[in-house]
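Homework help board

Subject: predicted structure for assignment chain

Our instructor gave us this sequence and asked us to write out the predicted structure in token form, then describe one feature. I got the tokens but I'm not sure how to describe them. Can anyone check?
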Amino acid sequence: MILPDLLDFNLNIIFCGMAASKKSKQVNAYYAGPGNKFWKTLYDIGLITKPLEPEEFEKILDYDIGLTDICKTDYGNDNELDPSKYDVNGFNSKILKYKPKIVCFNGKNAAKAYLNQKKVDYGYQDKRVGDSNIFIAPSTSGAANGFWDLNIWKLLAGL
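My token output:
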């Protein structure tokens, strides 16, 4: 496992990315890439009340937020990952066990892998994971800057 899951019961949101980036693996922290906007975004939209550094990722549980990935045994950019290492069933089991209010995919690729769909749209989805709603937000990765839209993240925070 590249990064440990950060999960618990009674969470408002569990964020799910595709896999750890090279930088995240190197420093053993979620969303640690120099261009990644995850931590700043959570603060800017009010999901956390003070800015966190990637190395402080475990403190996110204090805000009833958890973290995981579709792929826990590989790392790198999405296009570098081995699809045979995606663990959709393992992810599904975690969500069914912990039952967050919302599962938010950080980027369309993780959502496509989970939903087994070629096309997905941002925002709330018609499908659910057990009792958990599904939301898809634009990737906070610096590599996905062309798709960035803070307004969709604000929609998530408004819920």
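Reply (TA_rk): Your tokens look well-formed. For the description, you could write something like this. The chain has a mean pLDDT of 94. That's the kind of observation they're looking for.
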